[in-house]
Amino acid sequence: MKNLMTIFICLILFVLNSCAPKPYADTNQSYKSQAKIFSKQLTGLPSIEANDTIKASPFMVGTTNFNLRKPNFVIIHHTAQNGCSETLKTFTTVASKVSAHYVICKDGTVHHMLNDYMRAWQAGISKWGNTTDINSVSIGIEIDNNGFEPFTDEQINSLLSVLAKLKKDYDIPAANFIGHGDIAPGRKVDPSAYFPWKKLADNGFGLWYDEVRDSVPANFNNIQALRIIGYNVKDTTNAIRAFKRHFFSDTTKSKILSDTARSALFNLSKKYM
User: Which residues are the active-site residues?
Assistant: First the structure.
């Protein structure tokens, strides 16, 4: 009798679970279908057709030395939307044409929306150093925040855990954890001046300036130093603003660097050399 009761309860739980709402069933199926197509492309054998200028080999020679391309940057964003549900809807709507690998909600819930090896549409028109196609070499993380409020402890704790895994899995250099506002100065400001970059740097994600620093040389060039760090200095004003927002939570429109900011910039530029 006891066994029958256990089976009956299990059946009820199974039925309830089967009937539970699955709000992203359609988009999840779309994800699986697209992933299947990419999987087929990855497993396709290399080939080239002969023509008037190409003499193709009569037999296949596949190399034995290869692996998957891996991400080398992590780009951090704030969603600039009103809650996780709105962001999840945006990232599962074809017309939006935007996405990210991870979304972190205010309560710390992490939605892993895209395989890390796939290319999310998160960086847009951007540049860091000599890299202009940031989407192809990065993982995008969106944090639920409207840009005018502090980030929650739960979010930052979850973020640190995700970053630790990404750094370990893909051997991402500490200097390559940066913000959307850093790679697109003037166009983007996320993850806003409220974001705790120093806390991330203290945990090995991003670089930070030293408390004790050498004197700034008389011939120190601010713009050259920003370029060394990675900033696009085509628009010097926006590059300076992006730097001040990241390292000093400064959202003023001024392009003037204080003595403290110049000292930090000089110190940081040496770390990036």
Answer: 142
